Every structure is written in C-alpha cells, then in structure tokens.
Amino acid sequence: MSFETVSVIGLGYIGLPTAAMFAAYGKNVIGVDVSQNVVDTINRGEIHIVEAELDAIVHKVVADGKLKAVSIPEPADAFLIAVPTPFKGDNHEPDLQYIEAAAKAIATVLKKDDLVVLESTSPVGATEQMADWLALERPDLSFPQTHGEESDIRISHCPERVLPGQVVRELVENSRVIGGLTAKCSTESVALYKTFVQGECVITNARTAEMAKLTENTSRDVSIAFANELSIICDTLDINVWELISLANRHPRVNILQPGPGVGGHCIAVDPWFIVDSANGKAQMIEQARRTNNHKPDWVVGKVKEQVVKFEKEKGRVPTIACMGLAFKPDIDDLRESPALYIAQELGKDIDIKVVEPNIKAYKDLELIELKEGLGMDICIYLVAHNQFKGVNIKDDDLDFCGGVVSVIKK
C-alpha cells in the first residue's frame, strides 16, 4: 500500500518530529493533538518544543501544504499513535488512558486496509489491548486478533528510540524494531517507515517489540544506578568519583557511566517500572536500580543544605544560590521527570534560590535569571551540563564534588 496520507496522534516530543519527517519525505500528514495551542502553533509553521533542526522542517512542510494539525482525527491510510503513557497513583501502574482515548478517536475514521501503529512506549500487551479497543468501536471491520492475515485493519508496535536534541537525525538513521500482530502487519509497517528511515527495520512480534524498548532503557537505568550509587559511596569515603571512574575505565572491558543528580525524561525514568509491574516480583535488580536513581535527587538536596549551613557558619550570612539547569538532560527544554527540577523545587521550599535555565522562558514557582547573574551567586549548583555552562571560568579551589553534582562555592 502506498500510504499517501499519514495521521500522527499526539504532537509532542516524538509525534511532531515523526509527522514532520513523513511530510518532508512527501507524505500528506495530518497531525492530531488535544491541545488547541499546539494545533494553532503548528499551523502557523512554528513549534512548541525545543529540538534541533525541527523548526525549519516544520515551517517548510506547513508552507508546502504537506503537514496540517487538527484536534479531531480525519481519514488517513496509516495512523501512528504517539501519546503519553503515565502511571496511576504512586504504585507505578501503567496508565493506558491516553492510548485508549486515541484508539477510540481514530476508530471513527478507520476504513478497510488502514494501518495503525502504536509508537508510545508501552507495557507488554498494550498493542493487543489497543487492537481490542479498536475492535469494540468498529464491529463492522475485522482485526488481526480475530481474522489474522485476512483482517481489514493492520496493527503493529514500533517504539521510538531517539535521543532528545538529536531526534531529527536519529529518526532517519536509527534502526527500528517493528512488531506486527501478523506478518502482513509487520511488512506493511516496514513499507511505511521506509519512507524516511535509512536504518534497518527489524521485524519481530508486538510483545517482543514492546519489551525491546523497555529493555533498552532499563539497561541504561541499571548502569546509571551503579554510577550514582558509586558517587554516594565515594562521597562517604572522601574520594573524587570522577577520577575514580576515569581510572576504572582504563580497564579494556570496563565502561562505567558518569553519575548525576538522578535520572529524568519520559523513558529511562519510566520504562523500568513497566517491567516491574508485569514481572510479578521477579524484577528485583531492576526495581532496586529504579529506587537508587529515585533516591539520588533527595540525597543531593541534603548535601546542598549541608553546604548552605557550612557557608552560614563560615561567612556569618545566608548565601545566594543558583541552580544551574532544570531540564532532564543538556540542551533541551524537556522537564519531564527531571531530577534537576525536583532538586530546585525541594531546595526552594526552605531556601531562597534562583535558577538559570537557558532553554525555557519561565517556570511557575521558580525565579529564572540570566547566566551572568547566576554566576555571581555565592553557591552555584550545576545540575545540567548545558552548552551555555561550558567554558565558564571556575577556580579549582572553589569546586566541591557533591556526589555526581558539581557545586561551586565562592571562597
């Protein structure tokens, strides 16, 4: 099938770049989002997120009439669902309400031979659940779970695997894992993604495709947890953790990651819980790694407060403090699950702090200041390694390595 018209449901950090790439490679693309502000912004040829190269691409494809945004789904040949998958409550139970809502929304415009791909990172079995929701809404159509290769509708799972800040390039260059509910579902999905994907499209089943994405991010979470736990141990033993890791990594088969204030983003900080939730108590190491990384921001808050008390005793006054960075990783505006944001908010409950975050204009309960003003503060807590912070002249004797966070305390 040619898939001349592609609809992308959810125009966030993954959906919008994906829609833009299909449009840039000649497809007619209908983007769907529940936010009228997002719809209006895109239809002006502008973007509502920070992502390298994306603004120019969106501006061109909108001007060329290849991409438009709407709030209600319209008929298309292929539908890609890229909506959030949050948790229910405090027990990290996956919440599929947005996938369900998206499925029900597109069900009204589905027609024979359409393809539906779930891109949202999801717990194992979510694609099958989505297929059931679609079938309930459209009993006049047949679906793979009941009619196999002869079904009217094709359904697959194809998780994104891109790095924020490099999404445009990686969407094209990275390989994709595609899991169809049938072989025909997979084959047609590969044909769709090959519109712009230069990497290999590897076929598996839907459940394995779902688990592959979760496994990729969980592997990274476990590795980061080791580095973060090591940083806490080194702080206790008065050892520079960065020097230690540099020395250990000289071993030809050792590659320890760098510690930090925690783990953020909608993938690494979230996906392991999907495995824990479905593993019936068998994901013990995965769960402990998640708890280790979740604990790190609180530990950092405690260490910063210790520095404040020490400063007050030595100087006889309350220090001025700047938190450097709020995003969950360098050079983006994405605050989802950000440990830096959490640390700033927690410190702000008891201490007068200011924040330097060059990628956003404002944040509700925090005072944002320019870099120059931040550098004049008594204590600078470097939480995110934004490019704007690199090259800042810092005296070696002002540095304090706070378990994976660089603190600069003016002597």
Tell me about this structure.
This protein has 411 residues and is of the alpha/beta class. The chain folds into 2 domains: 5-199, NAD(P)-binding Rossmann-like Domain (Rossmann fold); 215-409, NAD(P)-binding Rossmann-like Domain (Rossmann fold), CATH 3.40.50. It has helices spanning 15-24, 36-43, 54-63, 97-107, 126-137, 144-147, 167-173, 183-193, 206-237, 241-248, 271-278, 284-315, 339-350, 371-375, and strands at residues 5-9, 28-32, 67-70, 78-81, 87-88, 93-94, 115-118, 154-157, 176-180, 201-205, 321-324, 353-356, 379-382, 399-401, 406-409. The strands form 3 sheets. Strands 3-2-1-4-7-8-9-10 form an 8-stranded mixed β-sheet, with helices on both faces. A 5-stranded mixed β-sheet has the order 12-11-13-15-14. The longest helix is centred in the middle third of the chain and has 32 residues, at 206-237. It is globular and about 75 Å long. The N and C termini lie far apart (68 Å).
